[in-house]
Amino acid sequence: MNAFRLIQLYFVSCVLMGFISLAHADVSATVDRHEIALGESVNLTITTDEATRSNPDFDMLSAVFEVGETGRSMSTKIINGAVSSETRWTVTLVPKSLGSHIIPPITVGQDQTKALKITVKKPDPNATAQGDLFIEWSTNKDSAYVQEEIILTVKLFYAVGLNNASLSDPQSPGLIVYPINKAIQYTTRRNNKDYQVLERKYALFAEQSGELNIPPIVFKGEVMDGQNRTRLGLFRQGRPVRISSSMLSLDIKQIPAAFVHKTWLPASTFKIDQSWPQNQVYRVGEPISRQLDMTAQGLAETQLPDIAVSDVDGARIYQEKSDTITRNNGNHLVSSKTVTQAVIPTQAGPLQIPGLDIEWFNTETGEAETTRLPAITLDIKPAAGGQQQQSPPQAANFDAPDPAPSQIPMADDTAINSDADQSNPWWRYGTFGFAALWLLTVLFTYIKLQSRPAKQPPQRPQLPEQTVSLKNSQQLSSADQQIRLIKWWNQQTGQRVTNLGQIRQQLDNKKAKAALDTLQKQLYGRGDETSSIDWHHYHKKGLLAPKKPANNSDQTLPDLYS
Asked: Helical H runs in 508-550?
């Protein structure tokens, strides 16, 4: 028995070792920039989803890069009883030559990362150093359409120690700003001098055509240098410093004439997909969940279009919910919108769901394009079980033979009644009398009830209708302000808007529009911060009233794009 037990344990151990050998950790490699200038550095990060004492071998990169010191960090999380660990290594690399360089797969334990490509270009010959501290900024385009994404890159160069440093964000009237990254740090060389660089990226959207002037970016902080030492060798407080960049001017064009009366969607990519429940039999009367997913690069979520809901032949369609989100891929904004619909078939057979065409403007090619969602046909089965129509009742057959008589003879009621009538005729008179008295009682009761005033059923007290108020809105977070403002607007106007952009298009007051722009900026910065905008005050002043429709029929562009 003991030998058999040992064989079982050995077999189980082999199976477990087999599973362990098949389980691999998830190891990834990323760089903060894929295109740099010669002399600049790039940060390589290796991440694995397990706690390990193995270290990647970065020496293999020394032939192409100058390899800096390696930083390592480990973390462990426990969520609902599930334990997860992570180990991360960060190393700074400086390319030794121009061209395209490949960071080969790096081994961590028994796993490897994927290869990465870095392009090293020549430094800008016009780039010069401007002392120990200066700011440079640039955009990916000098001219853009209204509401087209413009990528702004801000770089702070410093060759001194900094303390209590702050860098302002770009801002201008009629300009919506979304941060793409918080900060990227690396090193570079200018005029034979090494600099640390703090780089930030923003997505800009101009709301009006014409020349757009963006005020300078301002840096405030303290410089820590050798001149701040006292005679005893101690450091004094840093020397205050304030510098600013140059002013930036952009040419903002009106939307093309072909899109004046259409939904304006300037994006670099736009796609829409749909999904239906799998492994489900579609039946009459049973709802089918349809999910539509829109994704656009170069747009914010407030710019994504709404999808009209209408019934089709053989089905009713209801929109259940709509979720939107704006994120970034490190270089551009990427927005998504998920729309869930309930399709309820009303008849069996093929159900044709029509396709959907969305026209948008490709900012890469400068041409209009149409993204098409193809039509789909669903096979609808009849309703199940109790919902099926019942078969009509069958007619009775009066010519059917009488059933066989029972073994026990039954008494003849007719004979008994006739005998009773003949023996006692007063029984029949008494029955008629009691019937007449009963009819009279029913008649008098009915007359009495009709003469009484009808009792009114007790009225249930009417509950006060819940309304949405903008009072004390400045005490809410930006996200909660957005929810309350949308609910209040729909209550006041009887509409069903889903985002702040739809409200802004209907406002005429510039101050209210600027307040909405500020709220949207806070939403995509840190939505949990408390906003100081008093929307109740704006409402009392009449600044949130929808603008009246223009009577001028010759106007070709909406006021938003003027």
From this structure: 510-526, 535-540
